[in-house]
Input
Amino acid sequence: MQDILSTQTSRRDALQRLLGTGALALPAMGLPLAARADDATAQAFESQRAAHPWTQAYVGVQADVAPLPMTLHGKLPTELHGAFLRNGPARHALGGMRYHHWFDGDGLMQRYTIGAQGITHEGRFVRTEKYLADTAAGRPMSPGFGTAIPGTKPPIGPDSLNTANTSVVKHAGELMALWEGGSAYRLDEKTLETRGIKTWSPDFAGVPFSAHPRIEADGTLWNFGVSALAGRLAIYRVRPDGVLANATTLPVPEIAMVHDFAVTEKHLVFLLPPLVFEGSRMKSGMSFLDSHVWKPQLGLRVLVLPKDALDQPQWFELPAGFVFHIGNAWEDKDGVIRLDCMRASDAWNATAGLKELMRGRFAIEEFAQLTLIEVDLKAKRARQQVLPQRSEFPRIDPRYTGRRHQHVFAALRLSPGDRPGYDAVMRHDIGRGQTDHYRYGADVMVEEHLFVPRPGSTREGDGWVLGSALDLARGRTLFSVFEAQRLADGPVAQAEMPRLMPLGLHAIHVPA
Output
């Protein structure tokens, strides 16, 4: 196993630094009041619920969700079956204390089972170390991503805070719930029971493994992990059979909050927004989120790593901006990397907007827009084109990961009114510059939709778009199936159930 750190210090010391053990300790006293989880946040949220129906999406649940057959309208495609799995923060409050940021809630894995008999929904919390400790105590016992908890013992490492609430992946037959800054959690695919932490190797036990791994056509999985405290980036390459092929770490100056990355045939590509971690702020008692500072003078840095020479980074710069998600990247015959992502002008939504939602307040600020980026490795320059579509959660035909693609699918914000989130789903043809969309309506909050290839097909975009949405006016959760090339026609099948689930994050489809 390669480890760049070994050239500078011992492996044990290096990984100790990477894990940040001990350095995560937060002072129990002297925290800014605004950073504390307390009942005032819960009271503020409750005071807004009657006036703002969208707050239903952020109430959360307190227990596993029993299986419930959904009422089906239309006809499911006969070739479509399997499970649609969505992860997301769902336990937002415990013991009268409400978290301050949407990303702090414990992860609930929801499953929509699709078969000849229709669609059945259920959900089960991931039993992380934090979930079990909090449940036993009846209140949060450790901080969250955006919330510090006064009077609790300091965490001993990233997995002390791990809520496994962001994404899900199945690779080499293993289903895993993913978080941003800690280990993956293994799940039983049939029961959704938690099997424990995934350890890729003893040397990298507990090292962050991000929520956005990329799986190439041959089954190779690439992923990364950011250790803000150590200022380092971990890179993983996992063979199609699930065995770790390589893991390495490298230093990154002014390390930033990085949520996603992309792979091409020859490179790994990272977009580093100027939201930079400052350890001194965390040591002073701020939450992990509040320990980041917006430094627009750095611009949006583009880090390109050759797959066969990860210690030879190339850097580029774009105007300052914040990016959560990348759709895909590929490189043309001239070696120009072409990438699509969702870019906002600043990090307001991540640092402030998602906090306000937990208090039942929504302020209309800028939303991320579909953006096309070119990185010319030979000319050593990068440029971007910001498109008008206000959208998030980009997905592509997964068979085209790292290869030239034409279609991007995403949640789209058209005219939902004075509330957060998205009211439509779109397919954008990058080459033609054309967009096809379906609008659910102002009262329907749209979650991430994803593309599922039609069995036996090879043409990009031949298949279906699947996704769930929250019908706020009717108090129902919807699950829709679209023909991917005819979104505007509306769903060919739609199921609904009389329970409104917490707004979730990322999803996958696992064929039966």
Remarks:
- The first strand starts at residue 65 and ends at 69.
- The radius of gyration is 22 Å.
- The CA atoms of residues 25 and 154 lie 5 Å apart.
- The chain has a mean pLDDT of 91.
